[in-house]
Amino acid sequence: MTTSDNTISRKDFIRNSALAMAGLTLIPNIMTASPFFDEKNVSAKGKLSLKNVRLETGFTYEEGDVIATKTDLFYIEVDNGKITKIAPNQPNAKAVDAKGLLMLPAFKDMHIHLDKTFYGDKWQAVRKRTGGIKGMIELEQKMLPEMLKNSTFKAEKMIELLQSKGTSFARSHVNIEPTSKLQSLKNLQKALDNKKKGFGAELVAFPQHGVFYTDSVPYLKEAAKMDIDFIGGVDPFNVDGNIEKVVDFTVQLALDHKKGIDIHLHETADSGLKTVEYLIDKVNENPSLKGKTYLSHCFILGKLEAAKQEEVAEKLGAAQIGIVSTIPFGRLVMPIPTLYKHNVTVLTGNDSIVDHWNTFGTGSVLQKANLMAQLYGYSTELALSRSLKLATGNILPLDDKGVQQWPKTGDQADFVLINASCSAEAVSRISNVESLVHQGNVVF
Ligand SMILES: [Zn+2]
Question: Of 68, 162, 146, which Cα lies nearest the Cα of 114?
Fold first, then answer.
């Protein structure tokens, strides 16, 4: 058996059969398939018109508290990848019938490894780890040549999984080290090219085996000249044994090629905090890196005392360094609310779907927003609706006061139609995504 998902129509068929088996009565909307399903030539010449599209229009208050989200039905036109018209609903228009489904911004998975997965191939559970991060590097050196053989195919399967969950954009780390050299990048670029009509990505050149521990420097320098967006990294102290040397190299390479930075930081000892503080200093010294520097995981934040968390969050916010978190729970809970309080950009991603690191990725970032809401008690209408931003890369239909801010004419036509009455319900129920449109192209 393979791990790859079936097609969307098959997925809907199975879901509907399961509901029928459970003896559930047909509730309107629950059985809705993609409105684009029966439509022919829905995007003739890149144009698309939709009617009965539900958009959020404001909040309902009771004694000062948001108790509900107001919505209305609209008529929407898409042309040349952009939303060109948002008008009062025209129920009789010759247009795709969105059947009252809620339109939300398409989802973004901002930390994933599309190049390195078992997904689409044979199932394998994670093996017992020995030797920490260096043990894992040794394991990868053995596994990668085999994994690379069909990595384009597996990346395409994983993109299809993400799309089925409403995601049309990803920030993918891609291994750059002496074992893969630039092959993992080239194979992934081929997959992205094959999928480009319905999926976009930005890439992080990721020295998984250390910058210097295995000599990745020449490959990183070559990758930096290619079509990548960020210089990556991993645990500068635990892998390379030298925070300053690694961060200095990374910062310089990013500056030389006008790239961003996104470093995996799992270290929870003193070295973790030192790395965070050193990176903050370097970004403050080089303000062009503000707004395009990220720390992925950054588990050390979860280990700090509350006062120190506040202090570091404030510094991260001031330096405009973002945190990309998979929302871990259990022994480690990240101070996400503190990060929000200090205006730190918080992003999420699945990281692993099925690979030798982890096999629990569902492919859904809406599920991550749900997990965040559960973990931090974001359970009111307002708090749930705000939680959606974790799934959309911080785009929300309504601002905090309930003023409509998305979509606007001229916005990129990247959206989902979801079986929910509002964002809060979508987050709380992890509602089903019925269709995905990427840059005006109907994915399903
Ligand atoms: Zn990762």
Answer: 162
Neighbouring residues of the ion ligand 1, judged by CB less than 5 Å: 351
Quote the ligand 1 centre to 353 CA distance (angstroms): 11
For residue 310, how far is its CA from the centre of ligand 1 (angstroms)?
25
Which alpha helices (DSSP H) does 365-431 contain, by range? 365-376, 381-387, 389-392, 423-429
Return all residues near 311 (Cβ < 8 A) that are at least 6 apart: none
- The SS3 assignment for 148 reads helix
Alpha-carbon span 344 to 366, nearest angstrom = 20
What is the rounded CA–CA span in Å between residue 411 and residue 174? 29
- For residue 420, give both structure tokens: 């929910």
For the chain, what percentages of helix, strand and coil (3-state, to nearest 5) are there? 35, 25, 40
pTM: 0.91
Q: What distance separates the 2 farthest-apart alpha carbons in the chain?
A: 67
Distance 264 CA to ligand 1 centre (A): 6
SS3 277: helix
**120 CA to centre of ligand 1 in angstroms:** 19
- In DSSP notation, 152-175 reads HHHHHHHHHHHHHTTEEEEEEEEE
pLDDT single digits (tens) 153-196: 999 999 999 999 999 999 999 999 999 999 999 999 999 999 99
pLDDT tens, residue by residue, 284-341: 999 999 999 999 999 999 999 999 999 999 999 999 999 999 999 988 999 999 999 9
Lookup: tokens for 196: 């480009």
Q: Which amino acid is at 157?
A: K
User: Which single residue is written with the structure tokens 């979860």?
Assistant: 302
- Of 9, 2, 109, 8, give the one whose Cα is nearest residue 354: 2
**Ligand 1 centroid vs 382 CA: distance in angstroms?**
31
For tokens 């228009």, what's the residue?
93
Contacts of 155 (CB under 8 A, 6+ apart): 114, 115, 117, 187, 188, 191, 192
User: 């009617």: which residue's tokens?
Assistant: 51
CA-to-CA distance for 176 and 230, rounded, in angstroms? 12
Please answer whether residues 349 and 324 qualify as being in contact, where contact means their C-beta atoms are separated by less than 8 angstroms: yes
* DSSP assignment letter at 136: H
Q: Residue 122 carries which DSSP code?
A: B
434, amino acid identity: E
103 forms bridges with which residues in the sheet? Answer: 417
Residue 58: burial class (beta carbons within 10 Å; 0-12, 13-18, 19+): middle
